[in-house]
Amino acid sequence: MAAEQALLEIEHVTKDYPGVRALDDVSLSVQRGEVMALLGENGAGKSTLMKILGGAEYRDEGVIRIEGKEAPERYDPLEARHLGIAEIYQELSLLPSLTVAENIYLTKEPLRARRARVIDYPRMREQSREQLAVLHADHIDVNARVETLSMPEQQMVEIAKALASNCRVLVMDEPTTALTWSETEQLFSVIDALRGQDVTIIYISHRLDEVFRVADRATVLRDGAVVGTVRTADTEMGDIITMMTGRTMEDVAARPDDILESHEQELLVVEEMRDDYRVHGVSLTLHENEVLGIAGLVGAGRTELARMLFGANPRRGGTVRISGQEVDLGSPAEAMSHGLGYLSVNRKEEGLNLGLPIDLNIVLTDLGKVSQRGVISRKWMRLAADELIELLRIKGRAPDEASSLSGGNQQKVVIAKWLHAGCRVLIFDEPTRGIDVAAKAEVHSIIRDFAREGRGAIVISSEVEDLLAACDRVLIMSKGRITARLAPEEVTKDAIVRQVTNVE
User: Fold this and answer.
1) Positive or negative CA dihedral for 41, 45, 50, 55?
2) Residue range 461-476, pLDDT digits in tens
3) What is the distance between the alpha carbons of residues 305 and 284, in angstroms, rounded to a whole number?
4) For residue 174, what is the DSSP state?
5) 193 phi and psi angles, rounded to 5 deg
6) How many CA atoms lie within 13 A of 241 on its CB side?
7) pLDDT mean across residues, the chain
8) Nearest CA among 26, 29, 49, 42 for reference residue 225
9) 3-class SS at 419?
10) Residues 167, 193, 214, 468, CA torsion sign
11) Could you state, in order of their start, the residue ranges of all structural domains in the chain?
């Protein structure tokens, strides 16, 4: 019996940019109704391959077939939709001021009469309800403006939009980045439903636990070439990591052996901090040479607490002491003057100016160090930046724009700018969001290296791996309060998950 024709076939695809081969003879195939994970470190070629598939880039060599039919050598994103290819990125492509139904059927609205070009709004709304029902999202009001929806609801609308285009191949790029655990499970249920409709899914994620939960097979890219394709049911996570990085799982993710069992000198003391909304009387202590983790579900008040400490959000009560001295952190400038820095969860909008070069991004926190009589010295700026680029192993040159870097290297630049500022306390809010497994290990190491020599760090993360690999102690937040405190010997995956989810 002949093998079933793959729905999607990519054969011998090559893509060159000036001075670099982004894709080198890449071939893969995906069956109808299959979920294929596309994995690799930042810069491995995943984005380039998906841009080619979605029509945003042209391939130099190779063939793409959909249901055995060869796609044109060059096609644009609109033509990709006609071929049955849809892509959902972290930044959704919805128009917030339009309704759900208008977004789902944008550019393909059902008409009352073709010649009159009159949109049949009742039929459009009914068809939108049908598309959402397939996704078990029929609770979403098709008349609601998209801007009023939650992020998971907007994601459902984006998927419904793809289905309305008769999508046969759906690319999901880091779809769970902004979702809670329960919302992620809801998305996985939707993916299972799409399987039943023979929709082929290419799933891109740095969260390998998700890959093993949702994907049938995984194709791994490294340096623009396919390392191999494996069935997830027959493969261990460590094998995937080795394929991605060329190193063993033990080398890239392990509980550090320099955990500090006891701390004496208090660096930061917070007592009864609160606001009018999410934080209700939080007290904590950060010691010198310590990394303190804060875990909790989305909405627990973790980010609000961090922003209050940095002076970016107003507080309505509580005291803060740094090195025994009570301080007023009423603004980011005041917080910085006391040696406190904050790495926002949204590094692209709040941590970096992507249009500026790396060196200028690094020195922005303290221009005085690289200025003379109010004028920035390019020489001093370059020397200061080059030192930190080398220290943090940033894969980029000082004059390069920050936008040219991978997510992991962008995060290193944000860390570099706070090192330049001379901070003693750094708050990391979701420090490894959107970066690959090898870059995560580097960030963990940087955090721990920072929190030495009398300094300290607070790590807020939804990733249990971050807390295990970087933190000495872990606090659990729920509904704006600290509900549990885990000593070094108590910091385990089971303990964190149990406390966060309130499972006895």
Assistant:
1) positive
2) 988 888 998 999 999 9
3) 11
4) S
5) -65, -40
6) 20
7) 87
8) 26
9) helix
10) positive
11) 24-248, 266-501
Q: Which CATH class is domain 266-501?
A: alpha beta
| Angle subtended by helix axes 121-134 and 151-164, to nearest 10 | 110
The pLDDT of 147-166, averaged and rounded, is 85
Question: Strand 473-478 to strand 481-486: parallel, antiparallel, or no bridges (unpaired)?
Answer: antiparallel
Q: Helices (DSSP H) in 358-434: which residue ranges?
A: 358-363, 378-392, 407-421
Q: What are the angstrom distances between the C-alpha of 146 and each of 126, 187, 248?
A: 17, 18, 44
Instruction: Using pLDDT thresholds of 50, 70 and 90, give the confidence band for residue 30.
Output: very high
Beta-bridged to residue 217, according to DSSP, are 36, 231
| Contact in structure between 61 and 14 (CB atoms under 8 Å) | yes
d(CA 499, CA 473): 14
pLDDT of residue 72: 93
CB 460 within 8 A of CB 448: no
Residue-wise pLDDT tens digits, 343-372: 988 777 788 888 999 999 999 888 888 888
Torsion angle of C-alpha atoms 445, 448, 452, 456, degrees rounded to 10: 140
Q: Candidates 1.10.8.420, 3.40.50.300, 1.10.8.80, 1.20.140.10; correct CATH number of 24-248?
A: 3.40.50.300
Q: What confidence tens digit (pLDDT) does each residue in 181-192 have?
A: 777 888 888 898
Given a cut of 90, whether residue 65 has pLDDT beyond it is yes
Per the CB < 8 A criterion, the answer to whether 153 and 137 are in contact is yes
Q: Which residues pair with 460 in a beta bridge?
A: 294, 429
CA distance 54 to 78: 9
Query: What are the beta bridge partners of residue 318?
Result: none
One fold for both 24-248 and 266-501? yes
